[in-house]
Amino acid sequence: MSQDDQFLLPLGSAPRFGREDFLVGPANEAAFTHIERWPRWLSPAAIIIGPPGSGKSHLATIFAQESGARMLRADHLDQADVPRLAHSRALVLEDADRYPANEVALFHLLNLARETGQSLVLTARLPPDQWGIQTPDLLSRLRAQPLLILAEPGDSLLAGLFVKHFADRQIHVDAQIVSYALARIERSYGAVQALVAALDHQSLLRKKPVSRAMVAEILGSRMSDEEPDDEA
Fold first, then answer.
1. Is 46 helix (H, G, I), strand (E, B) or coil?
2. Are 85 and 70 in contact (CB under 8 A)?
3. Preceding omega of 39 cis (within 30 degrees of 0)
C-alpha cells in the first residue's frame, strides 16, 4: 500500500437512512408497506430478512424514527433489562441470526410485548428456522410473526441503488455509466455496494471522475475497440 493510499479518506460516505431515501420496488414493497402500516399491526413483532445490503437496517431505522424505538444489536439484549425494555413503545433488535440474542431474554420479551402493546422489529439475513434456536417455544413464537422479506432487486431498483450509493458518497455519475455497470454485474445488493465502494476508492486515488473505463477495469472486463475510452 502506498503512502497516498494510506491517507485516502472516503469523505461523505455515510448512508442516508431517511424515509425519502428508501428506494421502493417489487423486491421490498411488501416489507416497506408493513412498516408504513405501524402502529396498526396485528402482531406485536415483525422480522425483516434479506441479503447483505438489502436495506434491513434502513427499514428498521425508518421504523425507529417513526416509533421512537431504541435500536440494539440482538446479542446486547440483557435478561435483566427485559422488563424495562418491554414497557417502552418499541424496540429494534438487529442481526438476530449473526449475533443471536439470549434465548430466555428474547422469549420473555416477546411474551411481555404482547401484554404491554410494545412493537418489536428484528432484522436478520435468514428466517428464524435457520438461526440455530434451541428453545422450541421461542422458535414457535418467532415463526408466528410476519416475515418482511427483502428479495434480490430487479434492474430498475438496482439502477436506483447505484445512484443512491453514489449520492451517499457525494458522487455524480452519468446514466450511461450506470447502464454499462448494470449490464455486467451480479444482480445483487452486495454487488452494487462493492462496485460503488471500489469506484469511489479508485476515483479518489486517481483524482479522476468515475468512468466507464474504470468500471470495466474493476470488473475485469475489456471494452471493445468501438467503445471510446472516456477516461482519457
1. strand
2. yes
3. yes
Element (H, E) at 110: helix 103-116
Task: Judge whether 212 and 177 are in contact, CB under 8 Å.
Answer: yes
pLDDT at 20: 81
Report how far apart the first and last C-alpha atoms of the chain are (Å, whole number). Answer: 25
The phi, psi pair for 102, rounded to 5°, reads: -60, 120
Give residue 14's pLDDT.
59
In terms of domains, do 107 and 164 share one? no
Residue 198 is part of which domain span? 154-219
Q: What is the CATH number of the domain that holds 131?
A: 3.40.50.300
pLDDT tens string 109-126 = 999 999 999 999 999 999
Tell me: the pLDDT tens digits for 6-49? 333 344 455 667 888 888 999 999 999 999 999 999 999 999 99
Distance from C-alpha of 179 to C-alpha of 182, rounded to nearest angstrom:
5
Q: Is residue 20 part of a domain?
A: no
CA 66 to chain centroid: 18
Q: Give dist(CA 106, CA 138) in Å, integer.
A: 8
Whether residue 33 is found in the same domain as residue 129: yes
pLDDT, tens digit (0-9, with 9 covering 90-100), for 165-220: 888 888 888 889 999 998 999 888 889 989 999 999 999 999 999 999 999 999 98
Look at residues 100, 130, 149 and tell me which one is the last residue of a structural domain.
Answer: 149
Dihedral (Cα; 35, 38, 43, 47), 10-degree rounding? 20
